[in-house]
Amino acid sequence: MASVARRDGAVEESYRYCEALTKERAGNFYYAFFPLPRPQRQAIYAAYAFSRACDDYADEPTENQRKLELLEGHRRTLHETFDGRPSGPVFTALADAIERYGIPREYFDSLIDGVLMDLTVSRYETFDDLYRYCYQVASVVGLICIEIFGYSDPKAKEHAIALGLAMQLVNIMRDVKEDAEQGRIYLPLDELRRFGYAESDLFGGVTNEPFVELMKHQAQRARHYFDEGGRLLPLVPLRTRVCPAILRGLYSEVLRRIEARGFDVYQGRVSLAAREKLWLAGKLWMTTTLKGLLPLGRSSS
Questions:
Q1: How far apart are the C-alpha atoms of 91 and 89, rounded to whole Å?
Q2: pLDDT value of position 165
Q3: How many domains does the chain divide into?
Q4: Do 125 and 35 fall within a single domain?
Q5: Same domain flag for 43 and 140
Q6: What would the pLDDT profile of 213-234 be if each residue is shown by its tens digit?
Q7: Would you give the DSSP letter of residue 258?
Q8: b/e string for 20-54 if b means 16 or more Cβ within 10 A?
Q9: Do 147 and 293 belong together in one domain?
Q10: Quick one: 158 and 236 in the same domain?
Q11: Between the chain's N and C termini, which has fewer beta carbons within 10 Å?
Q12: Confidence band of 33 (pLDDT split at 50, 70, 90)
């Protein structure tokens, strides 16, 4: 990447913009990354602001062609940023973060590609198909994060990928109703058939035994990836280790609550209140810092 402007007032102001956006739009990420040293925390917020813009473009109340134009325009600005010509607060902050931490452009391109899939794909036949989507919209975020955290063992990448997958699978389970209202099904269709749960049942909000068994299967898969993602923790520095530990804990708690209500995700969105996030983040910060490593057993937090 070409050299970007030194960290002057405009860059600091851009970082403040990204931080405010993260606090407003992504409580989980804001609380998880608050323990980071300030430069790393700001870089994470810049990366989040970039990904938030991708999602916002995809959610625009307009036709898909216009959404495609917005996302491809976002990609062009990204490429200009890597060429040393950032524009606007998000890309000004992102340029500084990219230069400081050497984040590959391919991760950001992959994120855009994943968001573009939502414009053309509303069903996933198998988990292998869904895996590609989850990798692009979630795992690459983990890969971006570990470039900022710092690591030396290349296995950190596979565990960061796993943690991103686990978090996205929890999102999919939690958002079954909201996605159905938009005509989307992210649960693999071959698994719906295996458990005897019809698409019409999903769109009708039916929470029968086949649905519960289908969701139990998704929960088992998510826990497998949480366990794999937990192996990331000792591979990043202790000060930054707190962040994936907190994210793992927050999303594991959402999964636990989904299970506790018998997987009935149609009766209101499962979420954590701000005070609950703060309490859990504080608990995980203490556990990770004082013990040096979060236990790698079942991820029930």
A1: 6
A2: 98
A3: 2
A4: no
A5: no
A6: 999 999 999 999 999 999 999 9
A7: H
A8: ebbeeebbbbbbbbbbbeeebbbbbbbbbbbbbbb
A9: yes
A10: yes
A11: N
A12: confident
How many residues does the structure list for the chain? 301
| Residue 172 included in any domain | yes
The tens digit of pLDDT for each residue in 275-287 reads 888 888 888 878 8
pLDDT of residue 292: 57
Contacts of 294 by beta carbon, 8 Å cutoff, 6+ apart: 230, 233, 245, 248, 249, 284, 287, 288
Q: Report the chain's terminal Cα–Cα distance, integer Å.
A: 40
Q: Are 179 and 190 in contact (CB under 8 A)?
A: no
pLDDT at res. 253: 95
Which one is predicted more confidently, 269 or 106? 106
* Predicted confidence (pLDDT) at residue 135 exceeds the cutoff of 90: yes
Sign of CA dihedral 251, 121, 145, 54: negative
- What would the two tokens of residue 92 be? 């000004």
How many CB atoms are located within 10 Å of the residue 207 CB? 19
Residues 153 and 280 both lie in one domain: yes
Looking at the structure, do residues 176 and 45 belong to the same domain, yes or no? no
Between 56-60, 268-272, 282-286, the lowest mean confidence (pLDDT) is in: 282-286
130 and 96 co-located in one domain: no
Other C-beta atoms closer than 10 Å to the C-beta of 65 total 9
DSSP state of 139: I
What token pair was written down for 258?
């989904």
Q: Is residue 45 part of a domain?
A: yes
